[in-house]
Task: inverse folding
């Protein structure tokens, strides 16, 4: 028994050594993990601190610049304006004409400028009012003239109508050889107008008589000869040809037209239609 006990002691000692070695290895791994975790935490904490500090600095920068504390925004506006990441903090540029930002001298100069502009505008307004008044005078004068012209036109139209009625009445009395009626009607008219109208009627009657005599020449002429004469007169005297044919008897004018050159006869017929029927 004593030898056996002595023989087992080395095994016990070996097991104890293995256990100690394993514990040491496990302790070393845990230490490494702890160190790694601590390092990661430290880095994360640093980054968070940097972010927080950056936010604080950015907020402070924004407040200082946006509120123009110590005139930072105005002093460094150009420099900040050229920085895309910083220009967002700039406040709106102040109105240069805002009295709050103007000196006493600038305010006086601005007042003089505004007063000058006001005086200029008042002068322009007065000038415009004068022009309006002048145009109103012209307008009133124009309307008065147009009214007078319209009244004169109506008066002339009435006189023309009356003269036409007198002419027709005189012609009727003359055609009826009613001397007594003509005398009475003549006495009712204005003397000057009656004499002028009578002379005009006599002149027209004389002209009409002369025209009839002239037309009679062509009526008595051979149709072929008359047609040749009218063809020779041509388009330059087409008006005269038309007048003669219109004054002729229908059978005579038809016979002459039939003997004329077709092209010219067509033009003459067209002109006769315009004069006789009012066709255009």
Result:
């Amino acid at each position: 028994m004593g030898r056996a006990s002595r023989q087992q002691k080395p095994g016990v000692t070996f097991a104890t050594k293995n256990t100690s070695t394993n514990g040491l290895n496990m302790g070393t791994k845990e230490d490494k993990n702890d160190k790694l975790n601590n390092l990661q935490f430290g880095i994360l904490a640093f980054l968070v601190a940097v972010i927080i500090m950056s936010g604080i600095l950015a907020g402070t920068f924004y407040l200082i610049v946006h509120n123009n504390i110590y005139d930072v925004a105005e002093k460094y506006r150009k420099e900040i304006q050229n920085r895309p990441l910083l220009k967002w903090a700039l406040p709106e540029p102040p109105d240069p004409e805002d009295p709050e930002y103007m000196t006493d001298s600038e305010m006086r100069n601005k007042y003089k400028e505004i007063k000058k502009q006001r005086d200029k505008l008042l002068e322009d307004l007065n000038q415009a009012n004068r022009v309006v008044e002048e145009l109103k005078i012209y307008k009133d004068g124009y309307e008065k003239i147009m009214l007078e012209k319209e009244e004169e036109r109506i008066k002339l139209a009435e006189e023309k109508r009356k003269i036409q009625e007198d002419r027709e009445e005189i012609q009727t009395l003359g055609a009826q050889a009613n001397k007594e009626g003509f005398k009475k009607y003549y006495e009712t008219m204005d003397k000057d107008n009656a004499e002028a109208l009578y002379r005009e009627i006599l002149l027209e009657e004389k002209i009409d008589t002369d025209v009839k005599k002239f037309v009679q020449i062509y009526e008595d002429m051979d149709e072929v000869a008359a047609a040749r004469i009218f063809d020779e007169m041509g388009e330059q005297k087409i008006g005269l040809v038309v007048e003669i044919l219109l004054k002729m008897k229908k059978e005579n004018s038809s016979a002459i037209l039939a003997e004329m050159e077709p092209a010219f006869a067509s033009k003459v017929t067209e002109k006769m239609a315009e004069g006789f029927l009012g066709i255009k």
